[in-house]
Specification:
about 300 residues; 13 helices; elongated; alpha/beta
């Protein structure tokens, strides 16, 4: 039997299935047989729309049995296997084992049809949240609201700060994932709200618009070149955005009441500096004293908390 070729076509489930490389489409067109596990795979559906006939196996074969069938077929023809969304666990190893036992094996190659772009795994986060909030998902996740989730967002933000201070980058990556979860969670809750609803794409779109608008030195013809100039320009643009809002000129405008006092003081002082204002020494001392009082009170509270926890 004349040896043919077996091509294993791999594509990213995060890229539209029809958007494949030229090499992948050429492999499809040159194949005598195109095989796949199921006809409801996105890639198979895309090939069918393009007029490609795909034979489906039914998806019940073990990797060894499937590899044997594909290799046997490829010993006299060009065969292309459409990789499944789950990556066909064990199939590549089974094909290698099957080929190694033959004296005249077919050629085997892996054809990469599409690659993940940076940020592609964010789509997995959205898909996972969809599964959690959909019927048959997690009952705890399904009952959450913006209000019930708010404490977790605060907690996760503080855990990120702790991870930064620890210097443990793996820990930081993990904690940032928890903050990302909160963002996607709130977006999904809002999407289901009905009137005034928004979704994760709305959040992402608003963020991109804001970044572009506040960085004219990057995305337009702004002239800021130093960090100080960037900060002043940011303050000017932000002031223009909030112009007309009640209290927009107040140094405390937009600072949430729940923000820790030391951070609120730092933010106010930064606004004073960026606006070119002069803060009297007496006022500066009052802010410093207030921050110190809060720090002392917090230290006493934490000591009491450790004592109570240690007594249990």
């Amino acid at each position: 039997m004349t040896a043919g070729r077996l091509a294993l076509l791999l594509t990213s489930p995060r890229v539209a299935p029809g958007l494949m490389s030229r090499e992948a489409w050429q492999a499809v067109e040159q194949a005598d047989h195109v095989r796949a596990r199921s006809d409801d795979e996105p890639l198979v559906e895309a090939l069918a729309e393009a007029g490609v006939a795909v034979d489906v196996t039914g998806g019940h074969e073990a990797p060894a049995a499937l590899a044997r069938a594909l290799v046997d077929l490829a010993r006299g023809a060009d065969v292309l296997w459409c990789g499944s969304s789950d990556g066909d666990p064990g199939l590549a190893d089974a094909v290698a084992a099957e080929v190694s036992r033959l004296e005249d094996p077919p050629g085997v190659e892996v054809v990469v049809g599409s690659w993940d772009v940076q940020g592609g795994r964010l789509l997995d986060v959205v898909a996972a949240m969809d599964r959690l909030r959909s019927p048959g998902g997690c009952p705890w996740d399904a009952e959450q609201t913006h209000e019930s989730l708010a404490p977790y967002l605060v907690e996760e933000a503080h855990e990120v700060v702790h991870a930064i201070e620890s210097g443990d980058r793996a820990h930081l990556a993990d904690e940032l994932g928890d903050v990302l979860l909160q963002v996607v969670f709130h977006a999904r809750v809002a999407e289901e709200a009905g009137d005034g609803a928004f979704d994760v794409d709305t959040v992402a779109g608003l963020l991109v618009d804001k970044l572009v608008r506040r960085h004219p030195h990057v995305f337009a013809d702004g002239g800021a070149q130093t960090p100080d100039e960037v900060e002043r320009e940011w303050e000017r643009i932000k002031s223009a955005e909030t112009s007309g809002q009640a209290g927009a000129d107040d140094l405390l405008h937009g600072i949430p009441p729940s923000l820790p006092v030391d951070l609120a003081v730092r933010k106010v002082l930064a606004r004073v500096r960026r606006r070119g204002l002069e803060l009297p020494d007496a006022d500066l001392a009052r802010l410093e004293d207030a921050a110190a009082e809060v720090a002392e009170a917090e230290a006493r509270a934490r000591a009491a908390l450790r004592a109570v926890a240690g007594s249990l």
